[in-house]
Amino acid sequence: MSMNQDKWQRLTACGLLIGIVFVGPLLWSQEPAPEAAGQETEPAKAAEADAAEEAGDSLLDMILDSGITGVAFMGILGLFSVVAGTVAVERAVNMRREQLMPISCVEELEKVVHGSAPRFSALADSCENTPAPLAVIVQSGLARQGQPFAEVEKSMEDAASREMADLRARIRPLNTVGSIAPLVGLLGTVVGMIIAFHTASQSGLGKAELLAKGIYMALLTTAGGLSVAIPSLLLGSFFSGRVERYFRDMDKLLIPLVPHLVKRPQPTKEQSQSAASTSTSTNPLMSNAVRAS
Question: Which of 55-59, 80-84, 115-119, 225-229 has the lowest average pLDDT?
Fold first, then answer.
């Protein structure tokens, strides 16, 4: 019973707190009495006109109103957004499946793996002069054709690691922008608060518009940093997942290719003699010939 009472008390307290937070401002922001409204008709209209004019300000006007320091910080964040947008568009165009895994190379690879007579020359021709990661990995395996299994596998693994590292390096600017942009916004926040308190110390708290200008710049740079960082991190995560998915598909295609490139082990002298004796003992014609001799 005590536990239930504590639970109900907590729920009641939470409900009261929510009511105070959300309902209180609505009650406090109610319109004044008709007498006061009638006495202050002209100032109220002027304030409403000013508020409507401020609400109509564009984003550029808001940035310009933040002062030289705010414009500088927002310019840096704008440069970051241009870099992130350029990288995102370039990766969206050049990181498609057809770009990483050419159709001609995939078709010849499947013919080698599933065909009765592998045509390595056709596979080499389809992968030649192609910078696609799949073609580069196949060429590294063909360069070790006829070598032991470990050498062929190691060569293809090294090529795959290099290609994956190269693709990840090309999307790293998105993660860099996503990490640095909030810090630039935070720096702008700190600078804005410093300006605000410096203004307050020089002119006193009576001039609230000067104090509000520094706080305004601080909040604007914070919002700008987060607005640049969040899409950059999302795009970086998206392209990283695409790289991993494509390389998993390449792995499924390349694993069956390795045995076709490996050097067939030659039987030793002892194994050849053992195989010959086994075939002689199991073949009645050969056994009779041995006895007759």
Answer: 55-59
Per-residue DSSP letters for 8-60? HHHHHHHHHHHHHHHHHHHHHT----HHHHHHTHHHHHHHHHHHHHHHT--HH
Tokens of 145: 């054709």
Locate the domains of the chain by residue range. 67-264
Q: Which two tokens stand for residue 248?
A: 């998993």
Minimum mean pLDDT range among 135-144, 187-196, 265-274: 265-274
Fill in the amino acid letter for 206. G
The model carries a pTM of: 0.65
Among 102, 141, 167, 177, residue whose Cα is nearest residue 254: 141
Query: In terms of Cα–Cα distance, which of 171, 185, 278 is closest to 225?
Result: 185
- Please count the CA atoms within 13 angstroms of the CA of 84 that sit on its side-chain side: 25
Distances (CA, A) of 243 to 95, 120, 154, 174, 253: 8, 27, 21, 14, 16
With contact defined as beta carbons under 8 Å apart, do 126 and 102 qualify? yes
Give me Rg for the CA atoms of the chain.
Answer: 37
